[in-house]
Write a structure and sequence with these properties.
This protein is α/β, with parallel strands linked by helices. It has helices at about 50-70, 110-130, 140-150, 150-155, 165-175, 185, 200-210, 230-235, 245-250, 310-320, 330-335, 375-400, 415-425, 440-450, 455-465, 475-495; strands at about 5-10, 15-20, 30-35, 45-50, 75-80, 90, 100, 160-165, 180-185, 195, 200, 215-220, 240-245, 260-265, 270-275, 285-295, 295-305, 345, 365, 405-410, 430-435, 465-470. Helix 13 (about 415-425) links the parallel strand 20 and strand 21. Bound molecules: adenosine-5'-diphosphate (ADP) and SN-glycerol-3-phosphate. The site of SN-glycerol-3-phosphate has 12 residues, from helix 9.
């Protein structure tokens, strides 16, 4: 951020809510974070209590401001970024949710999705939304709430209920119920939004049985989202930037021209490549999605979503007990010359892109009696790199042009060994930025553009600085041999 003024970024994620204050040069000066409870009320069901989310977002926003020693007068704007697809339905008059939020990971509508796909709607959905019919996206989650909360469907038809992803729910609440809006990146994850026409689509609304009256207005990612209630920070502050977290990360990584790619390693892994103002339809089961929309002009991305990355490391810690801290995997991996032929396919909740096999389950292959914790830890890290290679090969096939480097971020990107192995396996440089909080930075940049702290996209590129660059070192023969072993292991976990 080139001029005076600070930006408050709110990053509402799957397991925690964060608020980060950025100074005028885009440097984070204060961070507050709270974890909140996950609810698993059924097999494959995952819910969040929107009241927990709202309470924590308010709290972390104030904590970050206090830490930074700032009042609302010093904040030029707020940027919001969020876990995507997660669905909230609330009462327009009171703002009260009528059900807990159904989280993106929730599989309860998988059977409904199979039915809709079997009825032959896949092509139409794909052509309009860029998505594959899957329980991951919001559409069938909304329908589920309308079908299971008594009277909800009629009330939704009458316009008494609002639907929103988490961004939209927060905007509604933080503006004192004044604004019901979302941005184009979040809309593109609902399976109800035509990414070419940039509008909700009647054919999709009819197919998924979602009344138009409950939908938010779709604005640019850098836009006027109203002002916060004075009680939040002591005075009203404009909300000026909004994007889904993976799109915000790509923006914060300055992936602003075609062919630039990022991969975020948190609970899951999400790789995005900017394809410019032309949406590229994947031949390799990747998603086409909105990267950002500025001044009414849409930039698109291709996305590969992997459901388990850091979650496998968490499982080594909490499930298997072979480590006490995730960062120990770095040392364990260097303690052995290789994984001793062990492959760990972390399909704990099925496989995402490019396989989309929700019935596949995790497995560890190739164990002999001399395999120890270091080999397993190494295999778990390697799996993250192999899955990224799956995505990057698919992207390269669709994209056609050169992908010169992969920019990485997220909690796992702190692992040097992983970054080096990733570069080796991709045969491509891997770049880690100085500011690892790229998701929040992206939301801050979007807000900064709107309120004039940034002049244009060049300022976003200038704010990105490389901290470490990992060059590929592995010989190609070894790289391909290792990767062939992974492909074989994946084939053995597939459900069909
Ligand atoms: N040094 C590390 N090496 C490997 N994995 C790590 C390391 N640090 C964190 N992780 C993993 O990264 C994840 C946390 O990343 P984070 O970006 O905070 O996730 P999220 O935003 O999805 O909650 C955890 O699953 C953790 O196991
Ligand atoms: O909250 P995260 O970082 O796990 O990201 C979740 C994604 O947006 C889901 O699509």
């Amino acid at each position: 951020m080139s001029r005076n003024g600070h930006i408050l970024a709110i990053d509402q994620g799957t397991t925690s809510s964060r608020a980060i204050v950025f100074d005028g040069r885009g440097t984070p000066i204060a961070v507050a974070r709270r974890e909140f409870p996950q609810h698993y009320p059924g097999d494959g069901w995952v819910e969040h209590d929107p009241a927990d989310i709202l309470r924590d977002v308010r709290a972390v926003a104030r904590e970050a401001m206090e830490q930074a020693g700032l009042t609302a007068a010093a904040i030029a704007a707020i940027g919001i970024t969020n876990q995507r697809e997660t669905t909230v339905v609330w009462d327009r008059a009171t703002g009260e949710p009528i059900h807990r939020a159904i989280v993106w990971q929730d599989r309860r509508t998988a059977a409904l999705c199979h039915q809709i796909a079997d009825a032959g709607h896949g092509e139409m959905v794909r052509a309009k939304t860029g998505l594959l019919i899957d329980a991951y996206f919001s559409a069938t989650k909304i329908a589920w709430i309308l079908d299971h909360v008594p009277g909800a469907r009629d009330r939704a038809e009458r316009g008494e209920l609002c639907f929103g992803t988490i961004d939209s729910f927060l905007i509604y609440q933080l503006t004192g119920k004044a604004v019901h809006a979302t941005d184009a990146t979040n809309a593109s994850r609902t399976m109800l939004f035509d990414i070419h026409a940039q509008d909700w689509d009647d054919e999709l609304l009819a197919l998924f049985r979602v009344p138009r009256a409950m939908l938010p207005r779709v604005l640019d990612s850098s836009d006027d989202y109203g002002v916060t209630e004075p009680t939040l920070l002591g005075a009203p502050v404009p909300i000026a930037g909004v994007a889904g977290d993976q799109q915000a990360a790509a923006f914060g990584q300055a992936c602003l021209s075609p062919g630039m790619a990022k991969s975020t390693y948190g609970t899951g892994c999400f790789a995005l490549i900017n394809t410019g103002t032309t949406p590229v339809v994947s031949k390799n089961r990747l998603l086409t999605t909105v990267a950002y929309r500025l001044n009414g002009v849409t930039s698109y991305a291709q996305e590969g979503s992997i459901f388990v990355a850091g979650a496998a490391i968490k499982w080594l810690r909490d499930g298997l007990g072979v480590i006490t801290h995730a960062s120990q995997t770095n040392d364990l991996a260097t303690r052995v010359p290789d994984s001793h032929g062990v492959y760990f396919v972390p399909a704990f909740v099925g496989l995402g892109a490019p396989y989309w096999d929700s019935e596949a389950r995790a497995a560890i292959f190739g164990m002999t009696l001399d395999v120890g914790p270091a080999h397993i830890a190494r295999a778990a890290l390697e799996a993250v790199a192999y899955q990224t290679r799956d995505l990057m090969d698919a992207m390269a096939g669709d994209w056609g042009g050169a992908i010169n480097a992969l920019r990485v971020d997220g909690g796992m990107a702190a692992n040097d060994w992983l970054c080096q192995f990733l570069a080796d396996l991709l045969g491509m440089p891997v770049e880690r930025p100085e500011i690892i909080e790229t998701t929040a930075l992206g939301a801050a940049c979007l807000a900064a553009l709107r309120v004039g702290l940034f002049d244009g996209l060049e300022s976003v590129s200038a704010a990105w600085r490389c901290q470490s660059r990992f060059e590929p070192r592995m010989d190609p023969e070894r790289r391909e041999r290792l990767y062939a072993g992974w492909r074989d292991a994946v084939a053995r976990t597939r459900s069909h």
